[in-house]
Design a protein that fits this description.
Layout (H helix, E strand, L loop, with lengths): L4 E7 L8 E3 L3 H8 L7 E8 L5 E6 L5 H12 L7 H4 E5 L5 E4 L5 E3 L3 E8 L6 E4 L15 H5 L8 H7 L5 E6 L2 E7 L6 E8 L3 E4 L5 E7 L2 E6 L7 E4 L3 E4 L5 E6 L4 E8 L2
Antiparallel strand pairs: 1-8, 2-9, 3-6, 3-8, 4-5, 4-7, 10-11, 11-12, 12-19, 13-18, 14-17, 14-19, 15-16, 15-18
């Protein structure tokens, strides 16, 4: 009864870092809030500043957990600015990188980055740990959730682990002239798969009984066509998101002009 996949855009171009945060582990959200699944997600980098763009991801190797918790609590009280780079990995990113973020992984997008966030849909449970000293319109620091967050940080997701499991996990599925199909995520704890199509000629897609949510991440436009005439062809333009219902069974992606890149998310079988 719940739509499982959410796409949204996180735009920090000309702005600052997003809030440092963590999403609840599946067991925690079930026991504490009575929900069946949590907000596993990923960041697909739509655009980036070559010098500045980054993602904060996972704790540093051999992090002092007690010191980090104490500094988060002091920052919440306004006593200090939380020294994020002392405790959290700052990972440089470029356009078309896909960073995986299973629940329990501390993270945020850095400044001057355009992110397509691909996630499960219970978006109301985000435990913010540090908001970089920002205040609301009333001049008061915006609410954060340090105690909830500390209970959900997976301290094993350190520097080595994130580079082995969450960065550059692309796998080639099919490669021929004009067609490159890659699996780009998500992590094996997550129920969503993502497939990237790099095309200069049409490619057919079989849906395996799952809705497909897709976004054109490069190129001017493409067409989504039925293979059996069950729906009219429709155009998708750069950075637009479209949904194809599972009932369609299969469809065809047709580049309108030049090379395109399209990423599609579906429920893993």
């Amino acid at each position: 009864a719940e739509f499982p996949i959410r796409f949204d855009l996180l735009d920090t171009m000309g702005g600052g870092n997003l809030s440092l945060q963590v999403h609840p582990l599946t067991e925690y959200i079930q026991d504490t809030f009575g929900m069946h699944y949590t907000q596993d997600e990923s960041y697909y980098i739509l655009d980036a500043d070559e010098q500045e763009s980054c993602v904060y991801l996972g704790v540093k190797k051999h992090v002092d957990q007690e010191a980090m918790a104490e500094d988060l609590r002091r920052a919440e009280k306004g006593e200090i600015a939380f020294p994020a780079e002392r405790y959290v990995n700052k990972v440089p990113v470029k356009k078309h990188d896909h960073v995986l973020i299973p629940a329990g992984t501390i993270h945020c997008s850095g400044k001057n980055t355009m992110v397509l966030e691909i996630s499960a849909t219970p978006y109301i449970f985000t435990f913010k740990l540090w908001d970089w000293g920002r205040v609301g319109l009333d001049g008061v620091p915006r609410p954060i959730h340090v105690e909830h967050g500390l209970k959900n940080i997976d301290w094993n997701r350190d520097t080595d682990w994130i580079y082995d499991n969450l960065i550059h996990q692309e796998q080639t599925i099919r490669k021929e002239e004009g067609i490159l199909i890659e699996r780009t995520g998500l992590h094996n704890r997550e129920f969503i798969d993502t497939i990237r199509y790099t095309l200069t000629k049409p490619a057919e897609v079989w849906m395996d009984d799952s809705v497909h949510v897709m976004n054109l991440v490069d190129g001017r436009s493409a067409f989504i066509e039925s293979t059996d005439g069950s729906f009219e062809p429709f155009a998708i333009h750069y950075a637009e998101t479209v949904i194809v219902p599972a009932k369609a069974g299969r469809y065809r992606i047709v580049p309108a002009e030049g090379e395109i890149k399209l990423i599609a998310a579906m429920v893993r079988r």
